[in-house]
Amino acid sequence: TDVYTNIEINQSVADSFYNSVEKELTYHNIDDVVNSMRVLKSVIEINAIRKAAEVAVQAFTEAMKTIEPGMYEYEVDALFDYFLRLNGCPRSAFPTIVASGSNINTLHYEANQREMLDGDLVMIDFGAEYSYYASDITRTLPVNGKFSEQQATIYKIVLEAHNAVLAAAIPGESYANLFYLSRDIIIDRLLEKGIITGTKSEIISNHTYRQYIPAGLGHCIGLDVHDPYTSNYRYLEENMVFAFEPHIYLYENDSTVNQDYWGVCARIEDDVLITSDGNEVLSSDLPKTISEIEKIMDK
After folding, report:
1. Closest C-alpha among 142, 59, 140 to residue 93
2. CB 145 within 8 A of CB 294
3. How far apart are the first and last CA of the chain?
4. Which pLDDT belongs to residue 192?
5. What are the two backbone dihedrals, phi and then psi, of residue 43, each rounded to the nearest 5 degrees?
6. 27 against 240, higher pLDDT
7. Cβ(119)–Cβ(248) below 8 Å
8. C-alpha to C-alpha distance for 33 and 208, rounded to whole angstroms
9. Burial of 221 from C-beta contacts in 10 A (0-12 / 13-18 / 19+)
């Protein structure tokens, strides 16, 4: 009886104490504080992301040598998983996307079930996870090893935007300005080549460009493949790590698009460390020019 009485008394004292303290407490959401801390990476974090990018580059390189018409998307997915585990990575940073043919029109396609056909493009979005840190790389490849004229035209526009972003991604620049740079290059080139109709001012003011550029320019990477970034207008700083991914999606039956280009899509994504005086492309060893890709895919 004494034991139970003491328990009841002690509980009563504890409740009284916490009730009195709680009245004086102020609660704050620490998400903004923690997210801000995660934006700038330490040397240890950068080295983990660097290793994750190296593994992803190796997997991509080997896959490029293997891809051919008649393979299924899941076979390519399996190749990536093999090289992932071979290099000591326990898992991919996110479900691997192997989107060929009409599947390329889906931003986050994950089924990976389709047979890849001669003449298809295949967009592969893959990231390795190493020591809990992510990489994120995308390449758009011709299944038969050769880009068609229309495929090459769209790919070159995306590559131009990609290279412009890399050249401009330095400390003191804002993510928003990098997005505008990429958007303007893509819209200018699509209009110049007669691939889309309209005027640049209307396409931008009406946000019609989202038909062709449906996602953002990129995101931070770290513990998550989409790591926190506190503001699109925050200036880039040393030790930030981004995945920049300019892209063009030209959907079927879009009356504003030249029919010869319906269904042609391209995205190029690299992992980029902001340094004191510029940037370092952590995935730079992975080919991304048309000649480099066609050379490595030549059977």
Report:
1. 59
2. yes
3. 86
4. 98
5. -60, -40
6. 240
7. no
8. 36
9. buried
Helix (H, G, I), strand (E, B) or coil at 245: coil
pLDDT in tens, 107-121: 999 999 999 999 999
Q: What is the DSSP string of 93-144?
A: SSPPEEEEGGGGGSTT-----PBP-TT-EEEEEE-EEETTEE--EEEEEETT
Tokens of 276: 């004191």
User: Angle 30-31-34 (CA atoms, 0-180°, nearest 5)?
Assistant: 85
Rounded to 5 degrees, what angle do the CA atoms 188, 191, 194 make?
A: 150
What order of strands is seen across the sheet that includes strand 270-274? 218-220, 241-244, 270-274, 279-281
Tokens 């790591």 found at? 227
Per-residue pLDDT tens for 183-205? 999 999 999 999 999 999 999 99
Task: Report the C-alpha gap between 252 and 220 in whole angstroms.
Answer: 31
- Per the listing, tokens 């300019």 go with 246
Please answer whether residues 196 and 258 qualify as being in contact, where contact means their C-beta atoms are separated by less than 8 angstroms: yes
In angstroms, what CA-CA distances link 259 with 14, 200, 208, 252?
74, 20, 18, 8
Q: Which of 49, 63, 61, 72 is nearest to 127 (CA)?
A: 49
Instruction: Note whether 139 and 124 are within 8 A (CB).
Output: yes
**Calculated CA dihedral for residues 122, 61, 155, 129, nearest 10 degrees:** 80
- Which ranges in 23-111 belong to alpha helices (H)? 31-39, 43-66, 73-86
Residue 224: which of 130, 93, 126, 50 has the closest Cα?
Answer: 93
Coil/strand/helix, residue 297: helix
In whole angstroms, give the CA distance from residue 259 to residue 213: 18
pLDDT at 46: 98
- Global pTM reads 0.90
Question: In a 10 Å sphere around its CB, with 0-12 CB exposed, 13-18 middle and 19+ buried, how is residue 31 labelled?
Answer: exposed
